[in-house]
Amino acid sequence: MELNRRSVLAAIGAGTAAAALAGCGGGASSAGSADGPAEGEITLLTPIYEGADGKTLLEKKILGGFRKKYPDVKVNVDYTTYAQLNEKITTGLAGGLLPDVLMMGVGWIPPFAAKKAIAQLPETLASAHDYEKRVLEPSRYDGKLYALPVVLDTRIVVYRKDHFAEAGVRKTPANWSELRAVAKQLTRGGRVGFDPFSIDLRQCWETFLFANGGELFSADGKKVLFTGARGVEALQLFKDLVKDGSADYARKTDAGAPSNVQTGKASMMMTTSALWVQVKEQNPDLIEDDKLGSFVLANRRPAMLQGGTLVTQAARSTHPAAARALVEYLATPDSILGAAEQRGSVPGLRDLDDTGYVKENQFVDLSLKNLQHAFSEGGTAAWMEIREKIKPTLEPAIVGDQSAKDAIAELGRLAEAAIGRM
């Protein structure tokens, strides 16, 4: 059976992939027994461990330790990026050549578990280490465990302490009214008071939605919940900030480039815990001089978006025991700590709270202390289709004349249609 790339991606998003992929021999049955000896040649697909340092960490240190424990398993690594990951997975499903072990993002488990592409894991693995409950939530579908967390990437607000002091601002904003007022006060001399747009617009709006007391979907993933006032108010705040002149969508910075708080072009910005590592490399004086602070966004409640990378097992691995062993190993404290240090991410294990890495990285430390306020994107089997439509649907309300209410309503219609096709 032949499927081109476009039709496969459409099938995954529309919820019709199960029948199509069954005809291609991919992902339609449960995993074989993982009770036998861990042996054989398997493949790991990963969007993290970037660059030469990441490759060395994974292949020499992490997989080096795995080989010592499981000498009869050979691991081939397929490196990709998050921008290409969904396409690689769906293409592998269509060809019946899905890698044995896959790393994927928060929100991705329900779509692929619903299609029987990934294997259910033993519930005992959820208590093998001291995972936070919030950290494990994105690893489940229909109450069952399908993945284990490796690293988290939280969305927090970072600010310039020196800018606050110069403007006489004595405390961080506790709600949106204060945030808007402080942003106005800090905007001066070509500097914007707040940059919410240098992270992905989807994740930015979600963070504000959660802080406003909103939710994306119902617990069963079948009903859209963001179309009410909570979601509209979150988008409207962006429009208000731009109208005030204290935020500018055109001045967002690219990932890896010196951020607006680093260059002093913004006094506050939405960012990730990884910014600490970037600043340490690019502007260490900001850390040495204690010019950076951070806080969790809040309005009706504090909320910190929890993204990150999970590890799971393909349902049709020909070497399920070896694949299961690698999934478990990549989620051990030593493996997690290495990945977190390399990326500047948050290790989702209480076992690692007292490590030097956590204590030194103030943004990671803040995130770990606020995991009770963490919220995850996704939550529906239709997520892979919906997630790609959030940014292009909401963007016209920020850069154009479309109202926040109309943009949210349109996104709601698209989401409801995607869920209806599942």
UniProtKB/TrEMBL annotation:
Signal: present as a keyword of the record?
A: yes
For this protein, the record's CDD domains field holds: PBP2_UgpB
Query: Coiled-coil stretches, from where to where?
Result: none
Q: Which residues form the signal peptide?
A: 1-22
Which keywords does UniProt give here? Signal
Q: Note whether Signal occurs among the keywords.
A: yes
Name the InterPro entries for this protein: Bact_solute-bd_prot1, SBP, TAT_signal
Instruction: Supply the PANTHER family for this chain.
Output: ARABINOSE-BINDING PROTEIN-RELATED (PTHR43649), DIACETYLCHITOBIOSE BINDING PROTEIN DASA (PTHR43649:SF12)
Protein name according to UniProt: ABC transporter substrate-binding protein
Q: Which organism is it from?
A: Streptomyces silvae
